[in-house]
Amino acid sequence: MKLILLGPPGAGKGTQAKRLEDRFGLMQLSTGDMLRAAVASGSALGQQAKQVMDSGHLMPDSVMIDIIAERIAQPDCAKGFILDGFPRTQRQAEVLDELLASLGAKLDHVIELRVDEEALVDRITGRFTCATCGEGYHDRHKRPKVAGICDVCGGREFTRRSDDNAETVRERLMAYRALTTPILPYYRRMGILCEVDGMADMDDVTHAIERIVAPSRSI
């Protein structure tokens, strides 16, 4: 099974990708993780990627597609993968299709988690975590049972991400739209683009995705 999972920051994409990994044995492949792994490997391809990254230039499609090809050939991708961060243009989508076709494969689904942007801003800007154990909380939706004390470990210190503010979140949403808008019509024409309500309950989102990727196995 070969999937692309789309969704802006805070839409729950990481959580859903992890659940797909656990249920179907897929691997989540982040372009950032793949680039860092390639550079760390010291391979010729990794050195080429490092030179581009050090120069501050955009990674050429040819280099990125070679890194993806190298990664999906590894044994842990035998059951399939969830691609995160690539493609971001129609040309990249076409190059990815060409790569998969050369391997006798193709994408099964492109799933976009649709969100209400203002509700998402509220969801993200209200987040805070226990500084000791990392348990997550929210100003309105999930406060500690006893104010100032973590439910899990009893810690009394909490932190917020510096970029979890309304202005930054809106900028990230704008960037997401700019990156994804060009490829949605391409996959819609192919008949593999599916939309899921990313604002629904987390389990409901999971079930909706499972009904798309494996109807006979969905709960």
Topology of helices and strands:
Elements: E1 2-6, H1 13-24, E2 27-30, H2 31-41, H3 44-55, H4 61-72, E3 81-84, H5 90-102, E4 109-114, H6 117-125, E5 127-130, E6 136-138, E7 158-159, H7 166-180, H8 184-190, E8 193-197, H9 202-213
Parallel strand pairs: 1-3, 1-4, 2-3, 4-8
Antiparallel strand pairs: 5-6, 5-7
Helix pairs in contact: 2-3, 2-4, 3-4, 6-7
How would you sum up this structure, described in words?
The chain has 219 residues and is of the alpha/beta class. 47% of the residues lie in helices and 15% in strands. The protein contains nine helices and eight strands. The chain has helices at 13-24, 31-41, 44-55, 61-72, 90-102, 117-125, 166-180, 184-190, 202-213, and strands at residues 2-6, 27-30, 81-84, 109-114, 127-130, 136-138, 158-159, 193-197. Strands 2-3-1-4-8 form a five-stranded parallel sheet. Helix 2 (31-41) crosses helix 4, helix 3 (44-55) runs antiparallel to helix 4 (61-72) and helix 6 crosses helix 7. The longest helix is centred in the C-terminal third of the chain and has 15 residues, at 166-180. The protein is globular, with a radius of gyration of 19 Å. The model has no long low-confidence stretch (mean pLDDT 90).
